[in-house]
Automatic annotation (TrEMBL):
One of its GO terms (molecular function) is pyridoxal phosphate binding. This is Cystathionine beta-lyase. The lineage of its organism: Bacteria, Pseudomonadati, Pseudomonadota, Betaproteobacteria, Burkholderiales. It comes from Pandoraea terrigena. InterPro entries: Cys/Met-Metab_PyrdxlP-dep_enz, Cys_b_lyase_bac, PyrdxlP-dep_Trfase, PyrdxlP-dep_Trfase_major, PyrdxlP-dep_Trfase_small. The keyword Lyase applies.
Amino acid sequence: MTQDNRKPLDTPEANGWHWQTNILHPDAQVPAGFAAMPVPVARASTVIFPDLAAMRSLDWRNDSQWRYGLHATPTSMELMRRLAALEGGKHCLLFPSGLAAISNVYFGLVKSGDDVLIPDNAYGPNREHGDWLAESFGITVRYYDPMIGDGIGALIQPNTRVIWIEAPGSVTMEVPDVPAIARVARERGVLTAIDNTYSAGLAFRPFDHGVDISVQALTKYQSGGSDVLMGAAVTVDDDVHHRLKQARMRMGVGVSVDDCSLVLRSLPNMQLRFEAHDRAAMTLATWLGTRHEIAAVLHPAFEDCPGHAHFRRDFTGAGGLFSVVFDERYTPAQIDAFIEGLRLFKIGFSWGGAHSLVVPYRVPSMRTATPWPHQGALVRFYVGLEDVRDLQADIEASLTAHLGA
């Protein structure tokens, strides 16, 4: 009969602790000499301090100190470092979504009695947030012509604190004169914040043009997989960063480090994907411009797109997003039928992934400061990574089936 030499689980180990305690307090360390390409995933809520002096010396302004998993771990800090470097910034904060990053700018920089300027082509939820602030928080919110350029100076009031910019507008695609707006704002002591999601920080570097804050939805190209929700706010000024960081802490905002690892995994190939989206979108947009069903193609790289000169001067690419305006003879029901007749273009909002998307918009109802010059329906396309020949055939088949030959 074989003798059983196994120790009972309640027998102390060599260090004097029992099995359950050793499971909770392992002497686990990464072996010296181990290295790998992926960024390690450091999950934590509680952060351990070596002693009370270290805990009591914490300064929330010091980004190099570990305080609590909600604020940062090595994984999320590495993503913030890379995103700041991508846009030419100094600091970065992460948020659960792009809209959360926009909200944090408001709550960090604006109070009751202040004034905010938002472009008329802004991302819809940003407008809704502005309206909410005006209705419930005693903040004045005004909408301006995105093509105003240095004329923005006439709108700045003594209580104006933030001027939002969107370049280009994510639906109507106007490209504002960002340097002119930023220059006038800085001369008047007003902060500028740009929604830079369209360019992913690859095709437009806002801090080179005088902008103070760059907000992005990392849900888009940075993720690339249509499976992560995250946002970022990048800054260069220490005081602005601290004001945003304090608001983020007070609202208890944090992100999953597992999601951070997914974004970190996608960053190395983001430029290749962005350029592929750009090439395919240009091909489709150029072809759609020849179709009799289309009254206008709204693509910043096209000469007749408002602000094209600014695009040529300031941008290095366009990515996969553009809009078209259909001839006004087509009814809303026909446009809906065309969209629902597409097989490869799926109906959905959050672009930036590998799959092509399409969404209709009622633009006149979205604008309050500037008239919309087109009468036909606007449809926004996001061009994914499918073969562009198949995407063109998909559009052509639905145009023929639902709008006539």
